[in-house]
Amino acid sequence: MSGAVAKVGWEAVSVELGGRQVVAEVTLEVGAGEWLTLIGPNGAGKTTLLRTLVGSAPNRGRVSFDGQPLSELPSRTRARQVAYVTQHPVIPPGVRVFDYALLGRSPHQGLRFAPSRADQRHTLAVLQRLDLEQFADRRVDTLSGGERQRVVLARALVQDTGVLVLDEPTSFLDLGHQFEVLELIAAIREEQEMTVITTIHDLGVAGQFADRVAVLVGGRLVGDGLPVEVLTADFIERHWGVPVAVEALGGGGVSITPQRRRVRRVTPSAPSST
Questions:
Q1: Given the DSSP bridges, would you call strands 60-65 and 244-248 parallel, antiparallel or unpaired?
Q2: Residues 272 and 211 placed together within one structural domain of the fold
Q3: Which of 101, 128, 160 is the last residue of a domain?
């Protein structure tokens, strides 16, 4: 891997969009090789905070990569250090799996803007690692949801960075495919010593995969630590409005089960005779 594993930091970062403050004075650091998951209710500012890492969300404050301000890095240099996968990746119509994954080599191609044989070999190796080689000549839009998600992940890994940023990598996937993708990310992170930053809306899933969780509510950081430290039943009910049962797992993880509220039925009283 050419992109060295690195730490990422936000220092007093704020973002305004359309005259509204979406992220407010967030200070947070992700250690080299750590998996941090940002969680929070809808509209909390999670995606916007991720976008500051690639320069698509102008901000006040300081966003850094191994202590160096990202604002000082050319976009091409930044793309060799941070791979970012949006929640809704744009996939050109009719593009083949191999060609789509190969786009991840673009930041490494200098002025020639053409893939080398080394780029092609690297791309094929990533597809093999993700068990996608059999789909190399298939159009991406003919694949299942889980297969497409793996192809999108392949493009990010082909980019060969030390930091992998994924916005809702399991959205629109069923439970089986959610765990398949996350287990794959976990395995690759261990093999390649990557720093991983994700957003995940499912608290139960986040509590089992992340080393740390950071909670945003209304654009502000309201919790940061091991899942077992942050995701208590009281904390979740206070910020999400849902009663849950929380079970501590090994390594600081938690299992979270939402609890249905039992509403007492009111029996209508018989009309009085007059």
A1: unpaired
A2: yes
A3: 160
Instruction: Output the pLDDT for position 113.
Output: 65
Task: Round to whole Å and give the CA distance between 185 and 60.
Answer: 31
Strands 244-248 and 254-258: antiparallel
Sign of CA pseudo-dihedral 226, 195, 184, 187: negative
Between strands 220-225 and 212-217, the pairing is antiparallel
Q: Do 29 and 48 fall into the same domain? A: yes
pLDDT in tens, 196-217: 999 998 898 899 999 999 999 9
User: Which residues lie across from 139 on neighbouring strands?
Assistant: 96
Domains contained in the chain, number: 2
Return the exposure string of 16-47: e unless at least 16 CB atoms fall within 10 Å of the residue's CB, then b.
beeeeebbbebebebeebbbbbbbbeeebbbb
pLDDT band for position 193 (cuts 50, 70, 90): confident
pTM of the model: 0.88
Domain that holds residue 107: 90-160
Q: Are residues 30 and 104 in the same domain?
A: no
Instruction: Kindly give, in sequence order, each residue whose CB lies less than 8 Å from that of residue 215, ignoring residues fewer than 6 positions away.
Output: 38, 39, 40, 221, 222, 223, 224, 230, 235, 239
Domain shared by 207 and 174, yes or no: yes
State pLDDT tens for residues 147-165: 898 999 999 999 989 899 9
- Provide the CATH number for the domain around residue 173: 3.40.50.300
Tell me whether residue 266 is exposed, middle or buried, using C-beta atoms within 10 angstroms of its C-beta: 0 to 12, 13 to 18, 19 or more. exposed
* Phi-psi group of 76: left, alpha or beta (phi > 0 → left; psi -120 to 50 → alpha; rest → beta): alpha
Quick one: 31 and 130 in the same domain?
A: no
Q: Are residues 166 and 124 in the same domain?
A: no
| Whether 57 and 70 share a structural domain | yes
